[in-house]
Amino acid sequence: MLSEFSAIEGRSPGYWKLVAGLGGLVLMGAGSFLYVEHYGHAVTGMNNQIVWGLPHVFAISLLVMASGALNMGSMSTVFAVKQFEPFGRFSAFLSIALLIGGLAVLMLDLGRPDAMLLPMVYMNFRSMFTWNVFLYTGFMALCLLYLWTMFEYKQYKKFVGTAAFGWRLVLTTGTGSIFGVIQGREVFGSAITAPTFVAVSLTSGTALGILLLVYTYRMTRRELDDRLVFGMRNAMIFFLVLVAYLLVVEKFTRFYDPASYAVETWILTGPWAWLYWLGVWGAGVLIPFGLLFNRNIGNTVSGVMMASGYVVVGAFCFVAHTLLAGQSYPFDLFPGYTITSAFQDGVAGSYMPTLSELLLGLGGVGISGLIYVFGIRFFRMLPQKGEVPQGWELPWNP
Question: pTM of the predicted model, to two decimals?
């Protein structure tokens, strides 16, 4: 079943055009970083109330997808789903590429990347940011080890792969907990936020894996059995159901508490409501469901790719809505106390991202993309031919 692994040739004009395009994104991101560093964050759309802007949306989206990109490797190593075993290397390597891109944006957005060392020197174990330092570096180390065991020392692959699977769940829980444990902002502070981040990482990581896998095989003119794509589609459908379930449960629990009526009404009808309804529910859940359950579209590779694209957009919107709507709601600095000031009391925050923020975020995408395209050119990440195990059939079709 396992075909020979091989690196791609990477000599075609199309390959070098792709490298040039991704390199251009990295250069624009670097230029944006220098611009913000020189003139300060005043040139961005961020302000005293919206301190996490578009670069953070890109960064966290990449980190969430990095966790989910390990799905194919985890399903084969931990759950013995043999048809995905040939893509374990691809899966672990994609996780590393996305993680590096996301962390790069986070560090560069600080304006002073050297300040990133401060949380590592002055640990505050009551802060999720301190814990995330360990979670991100630990995940990176485990993915590298996992990848190594797939190339050599295969006898340790199951052990390391299982550890990476457990770590990725903790990692995404930690990312979601950045917002879930915050009590000072009324939109945040929900126990369901972290599991929802885990579910979104499962859907978006699987979707991005499908897109890159099919695109890579098509561009390199390698054979990929359609049943493999449909198998990943079925997994994505179940992950989408989980996302929809958690979104509904969160709103149910929030509306059950009369104290949350005002904030939840504002979330569903306020200035960022379009991002929730069109982005999170529309692009992230309902349109993919509609495409995948349409027999004429959902049972074609192109249809699955189209749905996957919407899922990735929906995950980006989910992160954007969590950050931007969460910070825009009028900030109650001292809950339970009546304190007034002349500065933005009861005022919803406003935010308009600038071009420099967009370019900085796209720079992170470019870094991840370059790592991926160079990785599959210099290392044997993908099997020459994507085949299903002999005798394996797709269990069901939508």
Answer: 0.93
